[in-house]
Protein 1
Amino acid sequence: MSQEIIARIENFASRYGKSESTIARKVFNDGKTLTRLRDGGQLTPRTQEKAMAALDTLERDAAGPLGQRLTHLDRLEAESIHIMREVVAQCENPVMLYSVGKDSSVMLELAIKAFYPSPPPFPLLHVDTQWKFQEMYSFRDRRAKEAGMELITHINPEAIEKNVGPFTHGSAVHTDITKTQGLKQALDAGKFDAAFGGARRDEEKSRAKERIFSFRNEHHRWDAKNQRPELWDIYNARVQKGESMRVFPISNWTELDIWQYIYRENIQIPGLYLSAERPVVERDGTLIMVDDDRMPLEPGETPMMKSVRFRTLGCYPLTGAVESEAVTLQDVIQETLLATSSERQGRVIDSDAGQSMEKKKEEGYF
Amino acid sequence: MAHHDPLIAQDIKAYLEVQERKSFLRVFTCGSVDDGKSTLIGRLLYDSKLIYEDQMAAIERDSKASGTTGEKPDLALLVDGLAAEREQGITIDVAYRFFSTDKRKFIIADTPGHVQYTRNMATGASTADVAILLIDARYGVMEQTRRHAFIASLLGIPQVVVAVNKMDLVGFDQSKFNEIDVAFRDFAKNLNFTDIMTIPVSALDGDNVTTKSDVAPWYKGPSLLEFLEEVEVDRQSLETPFRLPVQWVNRPNLDFRGFSGTIASGTISKGDEIMAMPSGKRSRVKDIVLYKESLDHARMDQAVTITLEDEIDISRGDMICTPDHPNEVADQFQAHLIWMDDTRLFPGRQYIIRTANMSVAGSVTALKHRIDVADFSEAAAKTLELNEIGVVTLSLTKPIPFDSYLNNRTTGAFVVVDRMSNRTVGAGTIDFALRRSKNIVRQDFTVDHTARAEQKGQKPATLWFTGLSGSGKSTIANHVDQILFERGHHTYTLDGDNIRHGLNRDLGFTKEDRVENIRRIGEVSRLMNNAGLIVMCSFISPYRAERQMVRSKAGDGVFVEVFVDTPLSVAEERDVKGLYKRARSGEIKNFTGIDSEYQPPRNPEIHIKTVETSAEAAAAQIVDYLEAKGFLTIDL
C-alpha cells in the first residue's frame, strides 16, 4: 500500500508538473511522511485511507471538466437524490419510512446527502411491531438524532390492546395488524401525501414491477394492473386529498450495490448484520434468536449460543439467522456474494404463497 | 448467486474495486406478443447464473402449475411477477431486472408486447440506451414490431438489436433469417437508429443468447450478450452545452443559498460564468457542493447543488446554463405526442404539462396529423386515442426554457397529466418552438374576440336552449356546461335564476316584458361571446321573433338553437316546481303552454326529444355537435 501511495504521488507530480513535496504535503498534511515512507516507514490504516482519499480528490479535480467519470454507484446515488428532491419539490407533506435495516440506512444516508447542508426536510416514520430486535430500537433512536430529523413511531393500538404477537396470533395476523394496518393508521394520522420506502426491484417479483412513484388510492391500495406511465425521470406525484404516493428512491439498486455503497461510504448499520455469539433455537429448519423472554420455548428446547448474523432485519421471531463467522463488513459482503439463496429466504412472510407479496402490497403493505 | 468470480473468495476488496469500475448499460426488450421477450430475459439471468437456488426451485414448482414450456422450466416466470400475468401467460407491465457480467452491469426492462399496454413499453424504453427488439422467426416483422421500433426511435434510442427468436422452430434456416434482416432494415431506414444489429437466437434453448451456438455455423457475429457487453453507447458527449434544471432551492440559513438539480448535459467548473433562464441573469459559480465535498468540476448525470457569486433570483423550473449556449425559451411548440390513456386527447382542453423540473398548464391547440405506425403515413385526425402517436402544436400558459429532444433527452421531454384524474395521459418530445406567438406579440396586436377565444382554445358560441317550462332545459344545459368545463373550456350559463333575480328583476311576464327580457339576455350573451366564452342560455323564450333577434345579433356560426322538445302533457305531468298546477288553478297568469303561446323552432340546429333521450345523452349529443362544428378547437 505504501508503495502504491508513493507511486501515485510521483505520477501525479510529473504529470501536472508539480514538485513531489508539494503533492505530499497535500496528501499527508506534512512534509516529512513521504521521506519516512521511502525509508521503509509504515502508515497506520487510518492514515493510509486518508492519503488514498486525498489522492482521489487531487486526481479528480486535476482531470478537468471533461475528465470526470461516474461509476455505477455514483449514477445510482444521483438517481436516488434526484427522486428525493423531486418529492420534496412536488409534495406537501412527505415522510420517510424507516425500518432500521441496511436499505433504510442507505436511504437515510442518501437523504442526508440530497439536502445537505439542510437536514432532510421531512420526518422519519417507524411503524413498530413491538417485536423488533432490541438492538434495532437503540440504533434507530441514535441515527434519527444524528440526522437531525424528527422520528415518529407508531404502534397499532389494537396490537397493544390485544397484545398481538407472532407466537400468539401467527405470523400472518401479526404482520397484518402491526405492519399493514399500523402503516395505514400512521400515514392517515400524519396526512402524508408521499412516503419514501426502501424497497428494491431486485428483491421480489412484484416489486420488480412497481413504479418509482407508486400511486395509492385513499384506501392505500396499489392497482398493479393500472399503474401510471413513468417516462424518463419526469415523475408525476399529483394526488387528490386522501390519496398518496409511495416513492422508492432505491428501486434500481441491487443487494450488491447496497453493500458496496455501505462499504464505500462507511455507512452505519445495526450490528446484527455482523456475526456474534447469540442465543438461538432451531425451528422448522430456521434459526430464531431468543431476543427476549417473550419467546415461549417448546418442551426440550434450550437456546444454544451460536455465531450467527442476519441478512435482513424484521421481527425477531420471524427473521431467520444464518450461521456465519463474518465479523467485518468485508466478510459480510464476501459471504453475501457467495450465497446461493436470496436474502428474503430468511423472511417467513414471503413463502406463504407465490403471490403473497403482491397481495400484501395491494392491501397497502410496503 | 451468480457472483461466481473466484476473486470474491480470494480478495473481496479487489473484487469490489473491479465492480466499481464496470461500465453500465440500460437495455429494454420489446416486440410483438409471444415473441419471447420474458423468456429471453429469463434465459440471460439463468445462463449468467444470476438466479438464487430458492428462486429457481420456486420457478420449477410454478412451471408445473402454470408454465407453457412442458418439461423445460418456464423462464418467463422469472420475470412475469404479477398474478394476472402468470395466470394469463402474458406481460402486462414493465419489469426491471438486474444482472452483471465480468465487463458490465445491466438494468434490463422487460416491456409488454400487447398493444393495449404500449404505454408500459414506452415507460421501459424512455430510460434505455439500447433496444432489444424480438421478432418471431416464423412470422417476421409484425405491426407491433413496427410500433415498438417507431416508439424506440421516437424516444431517441440510438441502438437497436434485432433478436430473431424461435430460430429453433424454423431449423435455423439462414434464408429465413436473411429475409427478416432485409425486411427490418428496409422499414427502419425511415427511423432514427444510428445502428442496427440482427442476431438469430433461440431464447428457449439458449442458442446465441449468452454464448455463440454451433447450430447456426453460417452466423458469424457475436451472441446477444457478447454484443451487449461490447456495444458502444453513444451517450451524449460531455462537450454538449451545460444544462442544470433547477429542482429545489436549498436555503438552510441566511449564509447559504444553493440550487439543487441533476445536470442534464455538459460540464461546469468553479468560476464559470452562468446564465439563468428564462430571466437571462448572469453570475459565476462559487461552489459545487456534493454532500461534504466541494467539487472543482461537475458533469452530466451528477446531482449537485451549486452556489453563485451573486444573489440572483432563481427558482424551481428555471434552467442554469452558460452564456455561450443558453436555452431557448418559448411557450408554443411543435411536438410528437404518444397518447397513453383510455380517455382520448381533447384538443383545447387544458392539461398539466410536466417537464424535467416544472409543471405548467397547457393544451394541444392543433393536431397536425396522426402517424400510422404501419407505414408511417400521416393521417388527418381530430383526436388521439390510446397508444396513438401524433404531431401536435402545444401551447403553454407561460414560456419555459427547453431544448429540442433531438439535442437533449432531458430538457426536450414532457409528460401530459390530466387535471381531474391526475393520471399521466401522454408523453411527448419537443421538435422545435413555433415562433408565431412571439411574432404576434411584437406586431401591433389588438386583443379582439378571435384572439380571446384562441387563447382559450375554442370558438365562442351561444347555445340557446328553448322549450316549455319543466322541459329539462336547465338540466341539459348544466350537463353540457360540466362536460365542457372538465375538458378545460371556458363557459358560462345564463338562466332564470341568475338573470331574473338581478339584471331583469324589474321585468314581469307580460308579452312586452318577455321581449325585453330576451333582448337583454341576448346582449349579455353577446358580450360574453366577445370575451371568448361558450355561453349556455336556458330560457323558455316562447317567441320565434325574439330568438331570431338574438340569433342575428350573435352572428352566424355563433348562435346554436337547441330545441328541448317535451310535449305539454309530459311537462305538466312532471311539474317539477308545481307551476303548472298553480297556472291551471289560475294562481299564475301568462303561463306558457297554459294561457300563453309557445312557438316551437322551425329549424333548430339541435332538436332533442326528451321523451326518448336522457339528459346525459342529450348533453353528449350537443357536445358532439360542437366538436363536429369545430367549436372546441381553433384553427392555426
Protein 2
Amino acid sequence: MNANTETRAPARTGWVSAAGKVNASLLSLVVAALAWEVIGRLADVPFFPPLSDVLGVLGDLITDGDIFGNLLTSLGNLALGFALSLVAGLVVGTAMGRYRRVNAALGIYVYALLTAPSLVFAPIFFSILGAGQASIVAVVFMYSAFIMIINTASAVENVSDSLIEMGRSYGAGEWQLVTRVILPAAAPMIFAGIRLGMGRAVTGMINGEMFIAVVGLGRMVTQAGKRFDGAEVLAILLVIIAVALAAIALVQFVDRKVTGWVPATSKESG
Amino acid sequence: MIEISGLGKTFIGQDGAAVRALDDVNLTVQENEFLTVLGPSGCGKTTMLKMIAGLLPWDQGEIAIGGAPVRGPGPDRSMVFQNFALLPWATVLDNVAFGLRMRGVGKKEREERSRELISLVGLSGFESKRPGELSGGMQQRVGLARALAVEPSVLLMDEPFGAVDEQTRRLLQEELLAIWEKNRLTVVFITHSMEEAVLLGDRVVLMSARPGQISEIVPVPLERPRSSDVGGVERSSDYVNITAYLWERLREMHEERSVVAGSGPSV
C-alpha cells in the first residue's frame, strides 16, 4: 500500500519518546521495589523478606565471591545448551518449513516435545548421562529447542512465494535460495523465536541444576531453600533474572544487527 | 524466438474442481519482438509467462526458446515481477546484482555492471538505499535493472507497472520504450491495460478465460521509435482504433462471462 510514498515514514521512536520509555521503565522499577519493600515488611514471613534484606544478602554473596564460580558454571551450561538448541532450531526448523515431507515426519514429535513438561526428561538424562554437565545441557536443550524449531519452520513457510520465484528465476539453486533469500527474509520472525528460546533456556538451566546435578546457581537456590533462607533464595533469583535479561538483550542486539532493515514501525507491533 | 505449441494446463481448484488454466495455446514470439499479452483476469496470461520462465510445469505441449525446449529457469530469460519481488534487506546495488551473483559473477564485475544498469534506469545516487525507502516506481526500476543486468535474450514482464500510480506508470512506459528501442530484446509483456498493450507492443495477444486460450493476435502497425513522441502515438488513428477494438473484444468476454454466470440453475 505504501508503494507510492517517496520515503518510508519516520520511525516513531525518536530520542524524545525513547527517553520517555526509559523514564517509564525506571518509574515502574522504583514502584515495584517500593511495593516489595513494604509488602515484605508488613507480611514478615521468612520466604518473602523485604528488598533491603535481599540486597544485603546479595552484597554478601558478591563480597564472599561465592556466587561467581557458580554463576560461571551456570552460564557455561546455558551457553552450550542454547547453542545446540539454536543449531537444531535453525536446521530442523528450516527443513520443516521448506519441505512438506520433513514437516509431516517430524512435526508430531516437535509439537509433542514442545508441549510436554520438559523436566520429566531430567531423570532420563540423569540415568543415561549421569549427574554432570551433559545432563544439564540436555535439559536446557529440551526446554529451548522446540520453540525455536517451530518458530523457524513457520517463519520459513511464510516467506513470500514471489521472492522464492524471483530467486529461482535468476537461477538460484536450493542452497542459494535458502541462504540468500529464505533465511534472510525469515530472519525477523526467526529472531522472535530465538528470544523465546533464550528465556526458556534460562529456565531449563536453573531447573536442570536444581533437579539433577546440584551445581551452579541452581545448587545455591536449593541449598538456601533447605536452610529456609528466603533472602538468599530471592537474592539468587535476582541474579538469575539478571542473567535472563542479559541473555535476551544479547539476542536483541544480534537481532538488530541482522534485521536492521525492517522498518521500525512494523517492528513495534512484534 | 519463442515457440509455444499446444500448451495446456489443468489446475485442481480449492473446491476440488478441475480448472483449465491454459488450453491448446500456440504462439510464436519473433526474435526482437515486443509482444504484449492482454486478457481478463483468469485467462492464464501470467501462468503462461511463468511457464516460459520455467517456473511452472505444464501438462501438454512444448515451449522452446531458440530451438531448445524449456525445462526450467535459464540464463537466457529474466523476469520482472508485478510486486517487484525485491529483497527488502538488500541495497539497491545488491538487488540489481542479485542475478549476477547467483550466476557466480565476481563482486567487482557485478557491482560495475549493476552501477551501469542503475544509471540506465535513472537511479544513480540511490545505490545504498533499501527498497523500503523507495517509491513503487523506483522499486520497479530496480526490478528492471536487475532483469537487464544478467543480459537476457528474453525479458519476461508480469504486469510490471500494475502496482504503480498512473503518472509513474506512464513515465515507466516511456522509459521502457526508450531502453527497448536501444537493445531490442525479445519481450513478453503481460498487462491488463489495452492502452499499455498497444503503446508498447508490436503485436497484442488477446487471451480469453475459462479455458485460458488465445482469442486473437492483433498486429500494431505503429511506427517506432515511439518513446520520443508518445503523445503523437496516442493521438494516431491506429492507436485509437486498436485500443477501441481491444476494449470491444474484452467487453464481449466480460458480458459472455456474466451471461454464463447468470444463466442456468445455481447449484
